[in-house]
Amino acid sequence: MASYYINGGNPLHGEITVSGSKNAALGIIAAACVLDGPCVIENMPHVSDIETQLELCRNLGAKVEVDADGTVHFDATSIYTHEITDERARNIRASYYFLGALLARFGKARNYLPGGCNFGTRPIDLHLKGFNAMGAAANLAHGFITLEADDFHGEHIFLDKVSVGATMNLMIAASKAKGRTTIENAAREPHIVDVANFLNSMGAKIRGAGTDVIRIEGREVLPAGSTYAIIPDQIEAGTYMIAAAATRGDVTVRNLIPKHMEPLSAKMDEIGVHMETGDDWIRVWTEPGQELSATSFRTMAYPGFPTDLQPQAVVLLCTCTGMSKMYEDVWASRFQYVDDLKQMGADITVADRVALIQGPRSLTGAMVQARDLRAGAAMVLAGLAATGMTEVFDIHSLERGYEDLILKLRSIGADIRKSSDVYENAEREL
Ligand code: UD1
After folding, report:
1. Are 156 and 208 within one domain?
2. Host domain of residue 115
3. Ligand 1, atom 22: closest residue by C-alpha
4. 229, 251, 280 - which closes a domain
């Protein structure tokens, strides 16, 4: 099992470039499966979740070619089955988008129940309720979901809870369903807008993505034929912004959309981090010896503070002076990584959905686990901020979502290695 070894305690300096949005790409790949012609998708991040999602498409019959620069040539016209039989669908949460896509294409779909990061119960009842309203009956048995509709049609759907996945899934399905669909209480995340823009550029008629009411006029044929570039990854950008502040460095994060970063930059500003913003970059820095002050965060659906930056933000709060509070309002169980941070010297108390963080604490290197994708990112940041050597083990979940993490961090001065690099170096020395 691979590990990252981080010799921390050095401020990060320089420039780092953000890749395409993983969560937008996962939706766009599934959305491409409803199209009636080929398309080209640029800025596809090279991470393992994306490789899995593309492989699932190939197994459905789609023609998928990936250029070295991440450009994907995608042709869904050869998709011949409504059934996902590849077990890897169980490893990633976003494989559930194939339910919406295949339902739109064939009026039926069969897939494994989705997996993904484990931070409490992750139901898909809202997805199924929506599909049901659109005429599809669901059957859950032996780890599979089967959906079948005689007449898959548009409907007025009110989501009881704001859900990124349900909004995206229903929007993809509705793009080709008969008639008009309205999704009320829709999620407004940047990746929802990106999937809507992608589908619209291929002939769909989706209005209102980015607001809480999305209206979709279903189209019988989505001709495709266009080229679309995926937006930059909001969470990757945020992770590097936090890394700069947590190590008291000076880093310019390039290829981001500053508007998407506002939920984070507002909080960074509040604790005293300096920022300068350009068209597609943000410079983040602190003055030498500067103290940062404690504050309260609450995770929420966009434009609130993203839950996927919560663990990374807690690392930063460990370095701030005073008592900070982090309220986790999206997932029931997303503080499991706190025990690892405590091993590094953090003073954190968790009570249900609130973490109380007492700072500043000088973190010291330890052996810690990447319990899930973002918790793993937090461990890397903690290792960079800590003095001494940190080993982050079980890093496979990190590789699901961060493209070239090691290379990018090294380019801004981080001393970080993967275990295979360590062995290679040891062999060279022998
Ligand atoms: C997506 C992201 C994930 C992020 C989350 C919230 C992807 C692949 N994953 O996950 O990284 O943490 O958004 O920003 O894009 N819920 C229900 N019933 C449902 C669906 C959701 O009760 O049918 C609840 C969930 O338990 C959770 C909340 O709604 O409490 C939000 O979940 P949702 O927005 O659906 O998250 P995902 O789309 O799974």
Report:
1. yes
2. 22-229
3. 123
4. 229
Alpha helix positions (H), 355-402: 373-385, 396-399
Residue 17: predicted pLDDT:
98
Q: How far is it, in rounded angstroms, from Cα 191 to Cα 258? A: 15
**pTM of the entire structure?**
0.96
Question: Does 236 lie in the same domain as 223?
Answer: no
Choose among 295, 319, 306: nearest CA to 264. Answer: 306
Choosing from 229, 259, 276, the residue where a domain stops is 229
| Joined tokens for residue 29 | 């790949």
Q: What φ, ψ does residue 284 adopt, rounded to 5°? A: -125, 130
**CA 189 to ligand 1: nearest atom:** 14
| Same-domain status, 393 and 327 | yes
Distances in whole angstroms, Cα of residue 416 to Cα of each of 16, 235, 314, 380, 391: 15, 20, 21, 9, 10
| Domain shared by 198 and 113, yes or no | yes
Sign of dihedral through CA atoms 419, 424, 425, 430? positive
Instruction: Band the pLDDT of 346: cuts 50, 70, 90.
Output: very high
pLDDT of residue 429: 43
CA of 186 to the centre of ligand 1 (A): 12
Q: Catalytic residue among 39, 57, 117, 320, which?
A: 117
Q: Which amino acid is at 188?
A: R
Evaluate if residue 174 carries a pLDDT over 60. yes
